[in-house]
Amino acid sequence: LTASQTGDANFNAAINVSQLININAADTDGVDDLIENAVPNADGLGFGDGDGNGVLDSTESNVASFVAHNGMDYFTVKSSFPLSNLNVSMEPLTGLTEDVTFPYDFLGFTLNGLSAGELAVVEIYIPYNVLINSYWKQGNDTRWLNMATNIDQIGVVKTKITLQLVEGGNYDSDSNATTLTDPGAAGVTTY
Fold it and tell me: Whole-model pTM above 0.90?
């Protein structure tokens, strides 16, 4: 955990999940199996299956579950591509003109094995919150955009946010032609 002094205009705190723990990740996503096995199931009836597909997240390279800054909330990211570089952070916001609040951490992850221009559908599962109505990313041109294509409540346990991201597009924050890096955050936007 790195942080500057509270109240500092440039406050930034970040946790890189793979650096926090002794990695024991058989699925190659970089998140320790013990952490992934502790995520509440999507149906609220058990642990280890944050996306509710009936398979432990710790055995899937395209699904990763990890814990928030507060040590209590879990996030799950699912894609059709292998995941790596999972992290949570409290980012300083610059250039956001919309009236939006971020009740949870900013999430970061990398999708691997894409081709230039390829579309990736990503599902992000966060704690249940009926107020969530957006997922914001800052583009390489510094503009902010609500990237959520769909937001669903999963019972009374989780909120699922669906994104469509393009390798090499304006909202891919790396310059690698085969990976797509995504920092962003679920938001409550007043329209």
Answer: no
